[in-house]
Write a structure and sequence with these properties.
Layout: H1 3-33, E1 56-57, E2 64-65, E3 72-77, H2 78-83, E4 99-104, E5 107-112, E6 128-132, E7 135-136, E8 150-157, E9 171-177, E10 185-193, E11 197-208, E12 212-223, E13 228-229, E14 240-253, E15 257-269, E16 277-278, E17 308-309, E18 316-331, E19 335-353, E20 363-365, E21 368-381, E22 387-412, E23 415-443, E24 448-467, E25 474-477, E26 480-493, E27 499-510, E28 534-547, E29 550-569, E30 575-595, E31 600-620, E32 623-632, E33 650-656, E34 658-662, E35 669-678, E36 686-696, E37 699-700, E38 709-710, E39 713-723, E40 729-736, E41 744-749, E42 754-758, E43 763-771
Parallel strand pairs: 6-9, 13-17
Antiparallel strand pairs: 1-2, 3-8, 4-5, 6-7, 8-9, 10-11, 10-43, 11-12, 12-14, 14-15, 15-18, 16-42, 18-19, 19-20, 19-21, 20-22, 21-22, 22-23, 23-24, 24-25, 24-26, 26-27, 27-28, 28-29, 29-30, 30-31, 31-32, 31-34, 31-35, 32-33, 35-36, 36-39, 37-38, 39-40, 40-43, 41-42
Length: 772
């Protein structure tokens, strides 16, 4: 570790020491008030200890108080998310420092503490595991889901390779929703806001003959969007309609066995992520030596206005997803047992304007078909014993088929109509994972705890193929397999019942993949690049404290991140994937909650992330392959003539090896704060006012981390609400992005054009709701 890393860890340890003294003093004062020594057993919980601070999480696959879990966790409750107007999963980023949700066309790419992915390929997956009610959701297209009747969301920071498996190098996001209840109740909300945005959500549950409970929930949202197409003046070019419906049936068989079956179906017709305009920024174009921009762009019309796009052909993203789940829980006396069985089918189709302008070339059509099956068996110990443990087995398979088309249109009564596509090719894989894992915590003394764990995983990629160009013929590709053991070790010290200090080592990995969409198809060799798993060794120290209306969690960490899977580009614009970058990441983050009194509370957090590629580039199959550096075609050297044809705008130089440069999608500083004020129940009802402010420092969208800069930005949202005296009806007014910051949500890059998608401007809305 360099001197900055040592200094940062030292600062964290000093903060921990000061906080420990404070927490010990608080505990001693409370104990003295009860007339007992500071280390005596805690008294029974009082009314204020039953507040938000008694947070229970499942980060170690069993229910525990968050203060006793030696993992950095941000836990978001239903009320906190409601007051921050969280509706989709990506909205939690404004409440969670060091968490980002980026997109690459319609692929959602979450990252935590700088660990994410910029690649999109069959079988590629994410670096952050998303679990919905205990079930792994692997498809990055479906990652930004609409949140149903969610009780809490937990964001686990750092590698979770032991308890949650492969593809959790950055961490995991656990979403927990309400289960069917024997007690009949219902809830509904309706929202209307800027750009004709409408959202309707309803939930109902009841018992059946005293032996079962059933629930049903639905969400429907639509909007005209904030974009206008400058080609035809269409102000509804960004219009969307999305829906989700879920139903569950739960049987309680005595006191020891429950069975919960759920089916979810969702549909999406939302072109937002595919609607881009021409990107401009202050990055230097290596070809011209001038800031990158549209000054060298020769095609017209184009636009750089965040509220405008230039589209000659229809751009769209549609999807249909069905998910069936079965959860069986049983009390085995000696342990608790849970079985998770899942089947998912996800079909998506998109059409993308590669030029990012009204250039008369084809759109790229990309239908994708996924079928996922998974089975997990989980055993957890009973509370109260000095030895607490979790063990289980996991099986997962995902069949992934991609097709590519040249989408063409014709004009009917002045409007473009999609004729269909000419097949370009495609690819497919079947990914399998088998794993066994165990994690044990032993109470050495009432204050010292030791945790050790390991997971053995066997990963396969089988039945891989690519389609030869302009045909459906499948060209088989050899299968690959690998074994991996990911250990975990933690020592934890508990100076008081309200505080905890820990030091941990954990390992995570992102599984090996086959580059069926790239190098496997590159002539003349048609040889797939060997793409090894990504590995991260993580060291972390942390401190947690919860007592008397105040909770605080601070952690400092150091990651050694090896063999990053990154997209590279050939001179003829074909893409392929290699293990091309190693990196070092270190930093700290803090999350706090404070109840000043019954009427005033605040949530907040901040994170510093120092993420650098140590080396980006090296030898691949005997050829030097550097980091992808984009340049405009003006003045391109002769070897890039194939990339800079009549319609090409950019080419990619991969001859430069970079050292100590910023990683992709990583702001150094992120922070959020959310105060809330409530009057409590009055004769006229309850009134509340809340706000959420979020800040991100600058970062870069390019794979090399040196281009396509997004400057720092800050956003503010507010919500004011009235509930009637019975607490059954409410009306709320809310505003989002009141600073009217226009920041990029993605930058798309290819040889035809560099495009950007932008955040929405300031928006307002009203919500009415009822509980019955």
């Amino acid at each position: 570790m360099n001197h900055r890393t040592i200094a940062m860890l030292g600062l964290a340890m000093a903060t921990i020491g000061v906080s420990t003294v404070y927490s010990t003093a608080v505990h001693a004062q409370a104990a003295a008030a009860q007339g007992s020594p500071a280390q005596s057993a805690p008294a029974a919980a009082t009314d204020d200890s039953a507040s938000l601070l008694e947070i229970v999480v499942t980060a170690q696959r069993r229910s525990e108080k968050m203060v006793d879990v030696p993992i950095s966790v941000t836990a978001l409750g239903a009320e906190q998310m409601a007051t921050a107007n969280v509706q989709n999963l990506s909205d939690i980023a404004q409440l969670t420092p060091a968490l980002r949700f980026d997109t690459e066309t319609f692929f959602v790419q979450p990252s935590i503490r700088g660990i994410g992915t910029g690649i999109t390929t069959s079988g590629g997956g994410s670096n952050v595991g998303i679990y919905i009610d205990g079930f792994y959701s692997p498809n990055p297209i479906a990652a930004d889901l609409q949140l149903l009747n969610v009780t809490n969301v937990q964001i686990l920071k750092g590698p979770q390779g032991t308890l949650f498996g492969h593809n959790t190098t950055g961490g995991a996001i656990l979403v927990t929703s309400a289960e069917p209840s024997m007690e009949t109740h219902a809830e509904a909300t309706a929202d209307y806001g800027s750009f004709d945005a409408q959202r309707y959500q309803a939930y109902a549950t009841t018992g059946i003959a005293g032996v079962a409970a059933v629930d049903i929930e639905g969400i429907f949202s639509k909007s005209s969007g904030f974009l206008t197409n400058i080609v035809n003046g269409d102000s509804d070019v960004g219009a969307y309609e999305n829906y989700t419906v879920r139903s569950g049936l739960k049987f309680q068989l005595g006191d020891k066995v429950s069975i919960l079956a759920r089916v979810t179906h969702s549909g999406e017709n939302d072109p937002t992520t595919e609607l881009t305009n021409s990107n401009t920024d202050t990055s230097i174009d290596p070809t011209t030596g001038k800031p990158w921009g549209v000054q060298t762009y020769t095609f017209d019309p184009y636009t750089t206005n965040p509220n405008r796009v230039a589209e000659l052909q229809p751009v769209f993203v549609t999807s249909e997803n069905t998910n069936a789940q079965l959860t069986v829980k049983a009390d085995l006396d000696l342990a608790d047992f849970t079985s998770y069985t899942q089947w998912r089918k996800e079909n998506t189709n998109g059409s993308e304007n590669l030029a990012q302008a009204a250039l008369p070339i084809f759109n790229l059509g990309l239908p994708i078909f996924d079928i996922t099956e998974s089975q997990e068996f989980l055993f957890t110990s009973k509370p109260g014993s000095p030895l607490q443990w979790t063990a289980g087995g996991f099986y997962f398979t995902n069949r992934d088929a991609w097709q590519t088309y040249i989408d063409t249109t014709t004009q009917v009564r002045g409007a473009p109509i999609l004729l269909g596509g000419n097949r370009l090719g495609g690819s497919g894989t079947e990914t399998e994972s088998f794993a066994e894992f165990a994690d044990l915590t032993y109470e050495l003394t009432p204050q010292w705890f030791l945790t050790v764990g390991a997971r053995f995983s066997h990963d396969n990629v089988v039945n891989a193929y690519y389609n030869s160009e302009a045909s459906n013929k499948e060209i088989p590709v050899p299968s690959i397999d690998s074994n991996k053991v990911t250990p975990r070790a933690v020592i934890r010290y508990k100076p008081t019942e309200e505080s905890s200090i820990y030091a941990s080592f954990s390992e995570g990995y992102k599984a090996a993949i086959i580059d069926v969409g790239g190098s496997c198809q590159d002539p003349p060799a048609y040889k797939c690049n060997p793409i090894k798993p990504e590995d991260v060794d993580a060291y972390e120290v942390g401190y947690k404290f919860e007592s008397h209306g105040f909770s605080n969690e601070i952690a400092a960490y150091y990651y050694n991140y090896k063999d990053l899977q990154v997209s590279e580009f050939l001179g003829n614009a074909l893409a392929y994937i290699v293990n091309a970058a190693d990196s070092k990441i270190w930093g700290f983050d803090e999350q706090l909650h404070y109840d000043y009194n019954d009427h005033v509370s605040v949530n907040g957090g901040a994170a510093y992330t120092h993420a650098r590629y140590s080396t980006f580039g090296g030898s691949v199959n005997g050829t030097l392959v550097g980091a992808p550096i984009y340049a405009t075609c003006a003045g391109a050297p002769p070897q890039y003539a194939g990339s800079c044809g009549n319609f090409a705008y950019a080419y990619v130089n991969t001859s430069t090896v970079l050292h100590d440069v910023t990683m992709q999608h990583v702001p150094e500083w992120t922070a959020s704060i959310g105060p809330r004020f409530t009057t409590g129940r009055l004769a006229s009802g309850e009134y509340s006012l809340s706000a959420t402010a979020y800040y991100s420092s600058k970062f870069y969208f390019s794979p090399s981390g040196t281009q396509f800069e997004q400057p720092g930005y800050a956003t503010v949202g507010v919500r004011t609400e009235w509930k009637d005296p019975t607490q059954r009806y409410w009306v709320a007014l809310y505003g989002e992005n009141l600073t009217n910051e226009r920041y990029r949500t993605q930058v798309q890059y290819n040889a035809y054009g560099i495009g950007a998608s932008w955040s929405a401007p300031a928006t307002w809305g009203i919500q009415v709701g009822a509980k019955l």
